[in-house]
User: Fold this.
Amino acid sequence: MPTRAGWRRLVSAVVALSAFGLAINTATSGGAHGHVPSCGGHLPAFPGAEGYGCATPGGRGGRVVTVSNLDDSGPGSLRRALESPGRRFVVFAVSGTIDVSSQIIVDDPYVTVAGQTAPGGGITLRAGPGNVSGLVDVRTHDVVIRFLRFRAGAPDGVSGENLDGLNIWEQGSHDIVIDHNSFSWAVDENVSTWDDARDITFSWNIIAEGLRYATHPEGEHSKGLLVSGDATRNMSVHHNLFADNTARNPQISAPGKVQVVNNVVFNYVDSALQTSNAHGSPHVDIVGNYFIAGPDSDPDRYEIDGYPEGPQDTWSIHLEGNVGPHSRTIGSQRDLVTPEDRNLIVDTAPPGLPTITTVRAEQAYDEVLAHAGARVPYLDSVDAQVIEDVRQGRGRMVDDPSDVGGWPSLPAGKPRPDQDRDGMPDTWEANAGLSAQRNDSGGDVDGDGYTNVEEYANALVRSVAPQDADLPQPPAR
Assistant:
């Protein structure tokens, strides 16, 4: 495998050759593919949100629900916050690990989960004793989940195949953004979509270390992200770090349009990215991704592989600006694909894709490693090690969390005083010209469309996401 310096020289050489004629889409130019305006001209779910579903309001304007303990259920728990009805904006006054006894079911729409509001070490979800179903199941629309860690693990004495970190499925699951989270140690997929899920974005997540040999009845089953189902469509997968999953980085097995843009994929065993027409013909736009073979990678496997299960006449793959072990010469995008599947390659992207700010693969490598994952309020040792392993080219497949040091302890931290319990600390409210004696979370002090509590939550992540500078920074933690 080339060294990191070798990869940089390789990509720089490719970029320097203008004959390649690469046109990368940007949010300002509209790109080379006839993309529609970002978020369709609507207010993004949060500053910088892009891709399908990015205009969802989530829980904007709803009641603020504070998670105040690490209990599996009951008052103050995350389960109570997510399974309760009504429009809601979830914040945290506690940090640590929550042992989830069974899947938390989100089936009432219009909810935002702002994990970045937790003090100290942030929030990690773990499968508790007896859990055979996984961590969180989304079965509704207009959901935003940010800055949480989903680390299922394989509880002692539990056997089964569905210990996923996050599932999104069923008809009616749409307009969802999963952004800046960390997923690892699942028994099946770290993340999956199914059935009639649509208009969903996965952005800036770390999806890593799916358990290779755990309790899955098929044996080896370390998987990243599955996009599948008979009617699943309109998916954006951008700026994620996939590392140390044998496959599905991601796998597209659904009809409709799917964007795979500016992701970093490291140390895959099977082909990194798979696509199949098992449920209909996908149209996949694969742009500016950086594929890196790792210690467990088979040099004879191509970066992209197709699994045909029926007529291929409408199935298509569009490739542009991707870098990987098999794309070392000008015009070699076809060489990324298993030879027998190169008939699927087309010259143009599907029309009408949402705009995603896109950079060249080398720059995406740097930006994704610097900003992806649930790193606010705290970059835990699991994510830090994954990132460093990618930089050093030394990752490995994981059979059990103990293989990589087990569950880290998270600093508890202390929430800042919030007299009116509106999700915003008193000191921040004072600096923003708000009242610490009344709930003004749903107001909009600067008139930009984001409520006051959203402004606070967004300000917390200025270090890793673009922000509106009108309101003050949150106080130092």
